[in-house]
Amino acid sequence: MIISSDISKYQSLQEDCSLFEGILQQMPGLVWLLDAEGCYKKVFTSSENLLTTPNKELTGKTIHETLPSGLADKFQKIIHQVLSTGKSVKQEYSLKSIKGEECYFSAEVIRIIHQEEPLALWVSHDVTSHKKEQKKLLVQNRELQDFTNIVAHDLKAPLRKTLTLGSRLQSLAKNTLEGNAACYLERILQTAEDMQQLVTDLLTFCRIDNLGTLSKIHLEEICQNVLSELKESVEEVGAQIALKIPEDTYFEGDYTKIRQLLLNLLLNSLKYHHPQRTPKILIQAKKFPNKIIFSIQDNGIGFSSQYSEKIFMIFQRLETRAKYEGSGIGLAICKKTIEQHNGVITAEGIEDQGATFTIELPLKQASCYS
Question: Which positions ≥6 away from 291 have C-beta within 8 Å?
Fold first, then answer.
């Protein structure tokens, strides 16, 4: 009876292993089982369009024999990291096919124990088509930016001339204009100035290119630096600003862009403060294993929740220009900056009570294909 039970358990285990292998063999991309030395213990999916070594001959060989040396060294480091820490690692890389075409992969490497030996299960998904679409979009975006720059440049010249000639006319005829003529001329000049500012802001928005140099950013430190820049503005409205940020809260990003993001959001809170109460702004953050979430909350005039998405659209204003200066581009720049950092920004508001802007960012930016 005991022997029969053991046999049943063994058969069940064999069936489970066969099912697991069957699933791995049907997966798209590359699925390899590697030991600590980078030796192929098992190859579950076909690699023959990428590697010169046939699939059936891979077992027993090492990644150093079958992959370009630079890539093999990188893979070996990842295998060592996964096997020594037990933590999975995600990696993006490129590999030339036998036909010479560049193929792109997104891989995850996990540790498994097989017959008491720790092994690395390397699962790669082919993201070549996605990468090609990304490149197409980048080209289209560059073309659109070039077009916008040209159009904006062509608009600036006649606007400058309109303002110059209008100002001269206003100086020469200020004592001779009758009726509503002086008022109309003033409105023409103001409209031209507004248009000039819109064109300048449009150029600013279009010139927000890809991320620059990435660095380790200390959230509390960069907040303090921005607040130091805004010292006069803070004192002018008598704002009270509090920071609740855990120690050693770091994340990877473009320092210049993140600084501008915080500057825009804090200026927004100061600008739209409630006239009948002391402005209060709270900057707080929470750190998670793979991301950081921080927010800027104020007790200003707020806004209706129906505008939570519209508020990030370029040139969208919830208040009139006569009441608050600005063209409505600041929050659009914030959204674009966060998206470039692979993050998300959201806004919540209650009319006459205040607004909260919440930012979610990865602690580390995705590695480039190499």
Answer: 360, 361, 362, 363
156 token code pair: 């600036």
- Long-range CB contacts (< 8 A, 24+ apart) of 185-191? 188/162, 189/163
Alpha-carbon span 67 to 367, nearest angstrom: 20
What kind and span of H or E run contains 314? none
100: left (phi over 0), alpha (psi -120 to 50) or beta: left
* Full strand arrangement of the beta sheet holding 354-362: 240-244, 280-287, 291-298, 354-362, 344-350
Note the pLDDT tens digit of each residue in 312-353.
876 565 554 445 455 567 788 889 899 989 999 999 988 889
- Specify which residues 292 forms β-bridges with: 287, 361
Which structure tokens are listed for 56?
Answer: 């059936």
- Model pTM? 0.56
